[in-house]
Amino acid sequence: MFRTLTRDVHIRCPDQNTADQLAFIGCNPEIEGERDRVDLKIEACHGFLRLFKLGGACVEGSAGFILDELYRLRFEMVRAECPGGGLFLSAGTVTTAAGHIVFVGEAAVVMPALLVHLAQEGWPVTGDWLLIVEGGAARPFPSSLRVGLSALGRLSGRAADIVRSSPRIPGWFEQPTFAVQTSAFGKPCRIRQAPVLHVVVLEDNHGGRSGLQRLDRSLALEEMFKDMLLPGEGRARSLAEFMDLMACADCWRLTVGRLDDARRLLQGLPGVDQDDASSGVWHVDR
Fold first, then answer.
1. From the centroid of its chain, how far is CA 284?
2. What is the full per-residue pLDDT of the chain (286 aa) written as tens digits?
3. How many CA atoms lie within 13 A of 1 on its CB side?
4. E-assigned strand segments in 4-117
5. Backbone angles phi, psi at 223, to 5 degrees
6. Rounded to an integer, what distance in angstroms lies between the CA atom of residue 177 and that of residue 180?
7. What is the DSSP letter of 272?
8. From the CB of residue 267, how many other CB atoms can be counted at a distance below 10 Å?
9. CA 155, 160, 163, 165: dihedral to nearest 10 degrees?
10. Cβ(282)–Cβ(124) under 8 Å?
11. Which pLDDT score is estimated for 48?
12. What is the pLDDT of residue 275?
């Protein structure tokens, strides 16, 4: 089962092996508002799989092909649920009681490793893929954390064990990518609309020292504009809402070396109560 902003999508598979292969898309965060149920059916067909989509159309292919179709379907459903289509920003997110801390920049290794480490330490991590900006606020796209072997290599202890036990798909040279639910670390994942408090641009220091410094807003915006999807209509309005939202955020550059050093630096961001952050109960004074 995976969730969109307003719907719970249940997938009926023909056997357990298929269910295990498609578990990679599974995502079950807590999302505010009423929800509808959607049922999808997959059946075996001449050595392949057949997915019956909404409206009666169907597609056939391998488990990997069907997984891609499910990802595309989920994205289309979420975008249809956003008034005006929404603006989508490639970003990771920590959602505090007062708003989001948004991470952009090097997403392949540094971001998943850092977000898994923060989740292990009790931080309210809510996503690593997309941030949806609409109506002067933002909310994470419902998804699990995607962790490759390079990111896994920077984790240790319980965090690494949780990643290894999560659903996986093979990648290049059979190297797996894992789909990790943040709730696996013991705290619920709650997705909601909120303002953006901080924008943190990530750079990799490959296990060395971590450092944090203020960043000019124009440089942070330049990084965010690299991977942004505007709606089909009302682009000027959506971009204006995005600029208004980011105008209230503090911008930083975080050089990520040792993960726990990076965590301590983030814990010292202005407005973050360090005692509450270390206990995983977040309050931010602005």
1. 22
2. 999 999 999 999 999 999 999 999 999 999 988 999 999 999 999 899 999 998 889 999 999 999 999 999 999 999 999 988 899 999 999 999 889 999 999 777 899 999 999 999 999 999 999 999 998 899 999 999 999 999 999 998 999 999 999 999 987 777 899 999 999 999 999 999 999 999 999 999 987 899 999 999 999 999 999 999 999 889 999 999 999 999 999 999 999 999 999 999 999 998 665 444 444 444 444 3
3. 11
4. 7-12, 30-31, 36-45, 48-52, 58-61, 87-90, 92-95, 100-105
5. -70, -40
6. 10
7. B
8. 17
9. 160
10. yes
11. 96
12. 47
- Tally of CB atoms within 10 A around 93: 25
* CA–CA distances in Å: residue 166 to residues 25, 75, 161, 241, 245: 11, 22, 9, 37, 35
What is the DSSP track for 20-38?
HHHGGG-B--EESS--EEE
* H runs (alpha helix) in 138-183: 149-152, 157-164
One-letter amino acid at 35 equals R
Query: Rounded to whole angstroms, how far apart are CA atoms 128 and 160?
Result: 17
Contact predicate 30/126, CB 8 Å? no
The three-state (H, E, C) secondary structure of 117-141, written as one string: HHHHCCCCEEECCEEEEECCEEEEC
Distance between CA atoms of residues 143 and 123, nearest Å? 17
Quick one: tokens of 103? 């991470």
Residue 194 pairs in a beta bridge with 138
Q: How far apart are CA 197 and CA 249, in angstroms?
A: 5
- Measured over all CA atoms, what is the biggest interatomic distance in the chain, rounded to whole angstroms? 60
User: Is the separation of the CB atoms in 117 and 88 below 8 Å?
Assistant: no
Q: What pLDDT sits at residue 285?
A: 41
Cβ 169 vs Cβ 67: under 8 Å: yes
Residue 77, both tokens: 């459903």
